[in-house]
């Protein structure tokens, strides 16, 4: 009902794959796509049935409100109301065959478009925050944004470091920036002495406990 969690399709896919599955290559260190090529499959698998029903209900309510505004309004309001169902239909159809709303930029623009074009159902009110509360809220939002930016920068640094070299020392340096990188952990789990490999194999196995590659690395060194 609640799914396996956002981003965990890749983690749990080996548990449900079947013989002859062309989307799964068991012999590869990374045997399947990080996400499904469908928003709806991702929504059901990662967020669960309840989230899928909520998404459908929200979209249905937006479409219903828009269609009810088509009569008795001026042309501009009617065109805006028509654009809401069209935008949602385009997003849902393309999302059935590709990752659309799972990615931040298209999800942002779809939500922004629908929010701007959706006719108001009641007078819009504004809640003013007192100065102190507004300052605290702004500080928390800034801190969260900086944390996300630093995390993304560290991950990009790890990619850049290993772009031209896969030497052990280079990979170890990249891991300082991105210690949760499964690909780099697995790379080190297959190199060097067992003493050097076991730590990385254990971390890789914790990251993707149902994948064969980290378990094979562990067994190779008696782990």
Strand-helix topology:
Blueprint: H1 9-16, H2 39-47, H3 49-68, H4 75-95, H5 104-117, H6 131-161, H7 168-177, H8 182-189, H9 194-207, H10 212-220
Helical fraction equals 55-70%
Residue share in β-strands: under 5%
**Continuous helix count:** 10
H-E string: HHHHHHHHHH
How can the largest sheet be summarized? none
3D shape: elongated
Task: Explain briefly what this protein structure is.
The chain is mainly alpha-helical and about 220 residues long. It contains 10 helices and no strands.
Would you give an account of this structure?
By secondary structure, the chain is mainly α. Among the domains are: 35-117, no CATH class; 149-220, no CATH class. It contains 10 helices and no strands. It has helices spanning 9-16, 39-47, 49-68, 75-95, 104-117, 131-161, 168-177, 182-189, 194-207, 212-220. Helix 2 crosses helix 3, helix 7 packs antiparallel against helix 8 and helix 9 runs antiparallel to helix 10. The chain starts with 8 loop residues before the first helix and ends with a helix. 17% of the residues are buried. The model has no long low-confidence stretch (mean pLDDT 88).
Write a concise keyword list for the protein shown above:
10 helices, 0% strand, 223 residues, mainly alpha
